[in-house]
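REQUEST ID: PR-0412
SUBMITTED BY: lab tech R.K.
PRIORITY: routine
TASK: structure prediction, single protein chain
INPUT:
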Amino acid sequence: MTKLKKNLIAAAVLVVGFATAYGSYLLLSPDGRSGSASLDVQPAADAEPVRASSHRLTSPERSELTVVEFLDFECEACAVYYPVVERLREEYGDRVTFVARYFPMPGHRNAELAARTAEAAAMQGKFEEMYDQLFTTQKEWGESQDWKEDVFRDYARELGLNMPQFDTDLADPETAGRVIADQRDGVGLGVTGTPTFFFDGEMVASPGSYDEFRGLIEEGLED
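STATUS: complete
OUTPUT:
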């Protein structure tokens, strides 16, 4: 067993305390938070942590490690990790490929819509900008039972997107299919909550702190 894999196992234990502190780690179960039930998608038979079509937040010329996050834009824990990931992207973006994949949870009213919003923005080359917008404004729209499409359309306008194209892409079944494809990979890989990270294909629910996360990256770069 590699040193990185041993540390990933240790980190998976630490996540319970970290996530509980923020009260927002979601598990797939009939008794899940916000009345969530099991994710209604079939696992991908050939599930992969990252695919050619996955959204890369960094693309170093010589990538030494790939860190994949299965995320839900409405998940409070994901919002907690967002600045951690941003800090690590700044520090390691020239060596590490950071990848974002959709995993909207069933207990969140606007999570799937937010994922489609990000995907529709991606079709106009603005995935990262919408990714940032959704996380930095989460407190304004998250945990609501109201439908937030008008709010997300405002974000699209602020980013200068072509709105007729955005609306078309947002409603396109292929956009929803892209989100479901990420979910199917996640389920097939054993993802049960968000955020869940993969370090070169090895899963850890969530590193317990910035230092823990940074240490896992350092271990991965040493392997």
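NOTES: The chain has one domain: 3-222.
REVIEWED BY: pending
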